[in-house]
Design brief:
The chain has a single domain, classed as Thiol Ester Dehydrase, Chain A, CATH 3.10.129. Helices cover about 15% and strands about 45% of the residues. It has 1 helix and 5 strands; from the N terminus they run E-H-E-E-E-E. Strands 1-3-4-5-2 form a 5-stranded antiparallel β-sheet, with helices on one face. A hairpin with a 3-residue loop joins strand 3 and strand 4.
């Protein structure tokens, strides 16, 4: 039986290693955050429907601020609509800790307020019960 309900939210946190930096200033590409959205969507599907589901599409993606190696990023997915087989999700990504290579190679700080870096909307599909 499906437990898919509007408002069900799942979040993940992850340290972003320096091996993932692709650009000057230790910037990480946007695809990294989209992969994290796929991971958190999978857990939403498991919790809501007992199946990993399949990501069908994004209807909107907004990259608002940079993600850098050495950051700790939190991603969230929330169910906003439940269909027979589809679930629409809203995603957000926040930097909660920022690396501070200007201080030392391993320095970092907890941000007073999380920094919103990416927002998106997408649709997942789960098998019929």
């Amino acid at each position: 039986m499906s437990k898919a309900t509007i408002g069900l939210t799942v979040s993940h946190r992850r340290y972003v290693p320096y091996s993932h930096a692709h650009y000057a200033g230790n910037l990480v590409d946007g695809a990294y955050v989209l992969a994290l959205f796929g991971d958190v969507a999978t857990e939403v599907c498991i919790r809501a429907d007992g199946d990993e589901g399949l990501f069908a599409s994004y209807s909107d993606v907004q990259f608002l601020a940079p993600l850098r190696a050495g950051d700790v990023v939190e991603v969230k997915a929330t169910i906003t609509r439940v269909g027979n087989r589809s679930r629409e999700l809203e995603f957000s990504a926040y930097v909660v800790c920022r690396g501070r290579p200007d201080k030392s190679e391993s320095a970092a700080e907890v941000l007073a307020e999380p920094l919103v870096i990416t927002r998106a909307k997408g649709t997942v599909v789960v098998p019929v019960e």
